[in-house]
Specification:
Pfam families: Peptidase_U57. By secondary structure, the chain is α/β, with parallel strands linked by helices. The chain folds into 2 domains: about 50 residues; about 180 residues, 3-Layer(aba) Sandwich (Rossmann fold). The protein is about 30% helix and about 20% strand. It has a 6-stranded mixed sheet with strand order 8-7-9-10-11-13, with helices on both faces.
């Protein structure tokens, strides 16, 4: 009986099933049937012959889930150890994040991260190739301090060398979106930009105007890394400069996957904070 591959969790035999993918579509090509694959936990899009696919059973999926859970727990522990003490007499205005994502499923997961971290945010599902056309209008409408441009990407060896921007699935689109964003907000401190996904052309994104980008050694990044990074920046004071070393402990990546230039934080602290202003009293009731 033929396998209905759509929406199945699979691995690629040729890569020892190292990544869990979801089958998004099947294409008929001259040399056979190919599956279009989206990473379940990483921002990678790929294709593979049907013959190279292996269905993953519950045990394999559970193992991958345990590994992801361990990484997240380690990240949370690291973040807790580095948490800064706050002044009880002040109030904080964290930076607002505008998050454009080419993957609607990942977008929902990232918005959950922002909500849990109390980060002001707006999320927009936008195909990577449309980001450059939409970004200026969105920046004018929402006035964010942090912009995230992400989705899926991949280096395509058949299209050229790793140094060639056009050898990447969506890196050219991310680059054009960054350039258009900088026409609205040219200062690197006025708007902090995270751009890229798995295997993205790091150098081109940085030179286009991104503060933070993937992927210096063209490796995969986790689906939630852009949100983790943006959340840390949102709560970094405007009096502090941050580098990639400040960001990485709060993500699931290392400096092979994410790089950055020195950038000023966006958090503003105000005074005084009077808790009496927020306490409900009998006189407030009507």
């Amino acid at each position: 009986m033929p396998v209905d591959w759509i929406s199945q969790f699979v691995g690629r035999k040729s890569y020892n099933c190292d990544v869990v993918f979801v089958v998004a579509a099947i294409e008929e090509r001259e040399n056979g049937r190919y599956a279009i694959l989206y990473g379940r936990d990483i921002r990678l899009v790929a294709d593979a012959p049907i013959e190279d696919l292996e269905l993953l059973d519950e045990e394999r999926l559970a193992k991958a889930d345990r590994q992801n859970k361990e990484m997240k727990e380690n990240r949370a522990k690291s973040a807790a150890e580095k948490e800064r003490k706050t002044d009880a007499l002040s109030f904080h205005l964290p930076g607002r994040v505008l998050h454009l994502d080419g993957d609607e499923r990942y977008l929902k997961k990232c918005l959950k991260i922002y909500k849990e971290a109390n980060v002001p945010h707006i999320g927009v599902h936008c195909p990577e190739k449309e980001m450059a056309d939409r970004i200026q209008e969105l920046l004018i409408r929402y006035q964010p301090q942090i912009l995230v441009l992400t989705g899926h990407d991949a280096y395509l060896p058949a299209q050229g060398k790793k140094s060639e921007l056009n050898a990447y699935r969506h890196s050219p689109s991310f680059v054009n979106a960054v350039k258009n964003a900088r026409k609205i907000a040219p200062s690197l401190d006025q708007l902090v930009i995270f751009a890229g996904a798995c295997q993205s052309h790091f150098e081109s994104l940085i030179y286009a105007g991104a503060n933070i980008a993937s992927s210096p050694l063209r490796v995969n990044i986790h689906a939630l890394d852009p949100a983790y990074a943006a959340s840390i920046i949102s709560f970094t004071s405007i009096h502090s400069m941050f580098t990639v070393e400040d960001i990485l402990p709060h993500t699931l990546a290392d400096d092979n996957g994410i790089g950055a230039i020195e950038t000023r934080g966006v958090l503003r602290i105000g005074m005084p904070y009077k808790k009496e202003m927020y306490a409900e009293t009998q006189n407030d009731s009507s």
